[in-house]
Sequence to fold (88 residues):
Amino acid sequence: MDVVQLLILAALGVLGGVLSGLVDGGGGIIFVPALVYAAGWDIKEAVAASLVVVIFASLSGTLVTSRARTQLTGGWQRSSPRPRLPPP
Fold:
C-alpha cells in the first residue's frame, strides 16, 4: 500500500465519520460504497471490513456496559410486560 492510497483511505475515514455523525446513520452506509468506488476494493472485502468494525464496536459497547458499576434506571431489568396504568 503506497502513501497516496493510505492518505485517500484516511481522508475517506474522516469524511465518513463526520457524515455518519451528522446524519446519524450507520458507518456501513457511507464506508462500504467509499471503499468500493473510491478505494477500488471488491464488494465482498468492503462488506467484510464493515462487518468487522460492527462486531468490535458491539463487543466494546457490551463490555463497557457490563462493567458499569451503576445500573441504568428504567432498563429492561425493571420493565414489565404490561404497563401499569392508574386505576379509573
About this structure: Residues 28-65 form one domain.
